[in-house]
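User: Show me an example of a complex going from sequences to structure tokens.

Assistant: Sure. Here are the input components:
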Amino acid sequence: MTQPATPAQQDAPMPAAKSAPDKGGSRRPLGLRLDVRNLSLLGVLAVLVAVGGITKPDEFLATSNLQLVLTQASVIGVVTVGMTFVITSGGIDLSVGAIVALASVWATTVATQEYGFTGILFTAVIVGVGCGLVNGLLIAYGRMVPFIATLAMLASARGLALQITDGKTQIVTVDSVLDLGIRDAYILGIPPLVLVFAAVTVIGWLVLGRTTFGRRTVAVGGNAEAARLAGIDVRRQRLYLYLLSGLCCGIAAFMLIVLAGSGQNTNGNLYELDAIAAAIIGGTLLSGGRGTIVGSVLGVLVFTTITNIFALNNLESAVQQIAKGAIIVAAVLVQHRTLRGGDA
Amino acid sequence: MAPEPPLLTMSGITKSFPGVRALDGVDLEVQAGEVHCLLGQNGAGKSTLIKVLAGAHQPDGGEITWRGEAVALKSPIAAMRLGIATIYQELDLVEGLSVAENVFLGHEPTTAGIVVRGGTARTAAAGLLKRLGHPEIDPSRLVGDLSAAQQQIVSMARALSHEVRLIVMDEPSAALDPDEVDNLFRIVGDLTADGVAVVYISHRLEEIRRIGDRVTVLKDGRAVAVGLPAKSTPTRDVVALMTGRNVEYVFPERPAAGAAAGREPVLRVEGLTRQGEFAPVDLELRPGEIVGLAGLVGSGRSEILETVYGARRADAGRVLVDGTVLRPGSVRAAVRAGIGLAPEERKAQGLLMLESVTRNVSISTLSRFSRSGWLDHRAERAAAQQATRELSLRPDNPDARIRTLSGGNQQKAVLARWLLRGCKVLLLDEPTRGVDVGARAELYAVIRRLADEGLAVLLVSSEVPEVLGLADRVLVLREGSVVHTADARELDEHRVLDLVMEGS
Amino acid sequence: MPETPSTSRRGLLFGTAAISAGALLTACTSNEPKKQEAATDNAPVADDKPGKAVTIGFAGPQADHGWLNAINQNAKSRAERYSDVTLEITEGSNDTAAQIGQVQTLINKKVDVLVILPADGKALTQVGLQAMKAGIPVVNLDRIFASPQAYRCWIGGDNYGMGLNAGNYIGEQLKDKPNAKVIELAGLDNLELTKQRTQGFDDALKNYPNIKKVARQAADFTVESGQAKMAQLLQAQSQFDALWNHDDDQGVGALRAIAQAGRKDFLMVGGAGAKSAMDAIKADDSVLKATVLYPPTMAASAIDLARALGQGKGVSGMAELEIPASLTLYSAVVTKDNVDEYLPTGFN
């Protein structure tokens, strides 16, 4: 129904209208859209894989290591997908780590564990959504700055988690939950947690790119006033976004319970920083208006792969942290460079 | 020409950005004590040229001589040291600092080079502000608390705080009221009398006639005319140079009188009030009709528009579309009822600057292209393309980034948004602000055509000729009250200005 | 889960001595206590009978970890046992400035004795000095002040000894195995105690030339980090013979990672002495065969010391008139053979 319009053939001879430089002119393929930011991150990932493959060929390139890296990326990955939505809308959610902690702790109390698998899953998700709802209401209808509202949530959710556990580690005894983490549960060699991560990623990617919800998210982040004047319910959109982030935290909390076999108030430590860092190096603008799920997930994979390579080479965590910082700076610098090249 | 060498000569200046040749051999010659106007459509290279002059961009080629000597303007500081000051269109002030601190930012009067002498700075700033005709601005106030016009004065004071020989002003009158503009011209006159040269950029030809000495016209990165006499060159010639064709600065023809009169009003505003902004306003708008609101900045014209739209909540009164009362304070209710707004600040309030044309056009109509939330990108793009084609938006490429478009085409994208939605009432707030001369006539034609097709249009503009030329009926506002309502053909600019300033 | 029993089944003043007696006390622990037979019969020694009323101020870090929580519980239940002791316990805090403020408040309240487990020993030295100068004896618990003048008595665990005993236990288990490989899952690397534990472990392994430590990764005392770091270690080392994990809390995660990887081909030694670890040792159905204690019962002992100081008495079971200036607890190795003895001290 639409014929692709190349400016040359369609531009009616109209001397007055000076056509602007038209680099976005050719139509993008409708399939997977990878822009420069993603490409530069793929490059970083390729370099990392090369380094891992050279330094520890037997361990790094094994299937079991791929499974390991993806598993370790899955929990923070799910959190990052939610965070990407929030940042794209021009917001921030500092409470993700605390929500993961609270949800994982609430879902592993002795009382909850009596309800078995469903009880744990349900509780984790409900607690996550509930915290997200509070964040959303405070921000959208209480007119609080996201930074402050989620900072308050960070403090109180961590406090409540500590209150519930009393500092103790709550060990999970529900076998059906624990069994999800072991090798026997792998489906075609893929750990179930990785499947959840993949599903959340694909859904997030579709929602951000293909739905009215995603479009409104970008619009609110790009120019909230313009979105409001265009008839978008900006406040309701914000509420939904923090709900979504809370939902992702709830799912991640359940995944963490499976992985660690326990709930602890220290869970999710500094997830907020890891998720923000992954989203930013992935190419999501901290100021909002532009976000990429693919980039965020690549960002998470870059970080997890670094950790993996360093651990395989038995290097100290101090060195790992330095490398992480360096990668953040390098990735962002490369992006700026490539972006400036494409900018008039 | 003066016997002494020109103050500034730029010759053959070129500057490229990736993919764009912004300046393609521009010449400019400025004499001391003259007002030299720089004209050109958006994208003609004016901004790049003044950034080169301010030392913010380094040219790829060409020569610059300053008082007969070749110079390189390596940085803004280097330009400032020579005595070149620039007042940008987007004011570059720090809102969290005081007026005096802004004026002396970067060259604060200090004791021993360390301790800022705040008192000296305030006294000096007060002197500059007085010289600029604004002694009422307190140097210790925060710049963020000042109005746009006052901020511009501060920006000018900052320029004058240097030893200055050449001031570049980029559309200084865009945010100003007529009396503010008069003050501006008085300042420009004082400066040139002191031998300071002014490079003046404006879209308003009448201003150039009033204060300009000579004109340089830029088009597509080239100077197509250098040093034309500002007062005597016919408008038609200037427009022709800018656009490359002969455009009559004309308004479209109105339909036969009373064509809309027999129709039921689509929009009715009854006793709409907002404390401190405007007194009760009544108005009716019929399909096919363009009604203009004329008034000064602060007369409440934009506020009325935004209150009708629900972006501000009325204290009293109501808005009806097709006889149904709208929920007050709800933009969504207004949009659902068929009202659309092209806001005053196009970039800040109207557009998603990072996004494509399609996405800017479809934003109010997303549900039409979605099935249970999933967007049909093809349908969306096709519909956006159709809507933008109807308005001859250039380039005819729905994927182009909105920020690469000229002001007029950006405005068309906003109109296309509401066209696509099929709205009944269109509220236009300063539709031609930042739109260059050539594109204005085209925009007027588009607006008239939309009205002819049955849309009701409520127009706000600070340019009286625009309201008179485009609207069928005009409401004249003064200090929040409608002081006169008349058929546009019964009014002229003088009469309106009288009403606006004195009342009647 | 049940509260940690903080009282020893033995009647020694040091209820904890049985499991954690420092070298100083070992001589006495071999016998059941005979309270009235203290070496200096005429010297007053503290006992269970009510004496002069003593108010003890207790300031510790935030109980966000199983071991720290057990510390608080031990202190509280020990104090409850004495009708003559009033315990003023502050909100736990990990913030040095906040903790200084809390201790100063206790000084102003003029408590008789202070028990301080500092979030950071060096940083709280000044406030310890302040209390001592104000005439309030300070019992410094575990994390030591920078100056001995800042406390009357220090009691705490032996991090170096913990590593040493873990290393020696593993060494004995593997001594007949040629080219044995050992890995270490350390705790939070920016704590000095982690370095001390590692140092002790390395020193012990030097006695066994057939054993080589092939990898070390640091977790941060949380289950989550234990799982993550252990998973990486398992991937990096396809074969090894023994693992020492510094902390049983992070050990929960480490054991998950081991189960998830389906590995069983090595022996694991834990640290600190969590109940879950002891249960696993007793059940003997996992790789975890032993744990080296870092007993939280030291808090109960600290209360005993504080009470004795407040009442101006010595401690029973010792010849000394005065409370010792320093008591280092012993890091016993808990295995299947002796686990029943220690199980009641295990913390959640």
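The lines above are the inputs; the final block is the predicted structure for all three components together. Chain A touches chain B through 51 residues (CB under 8 Å).
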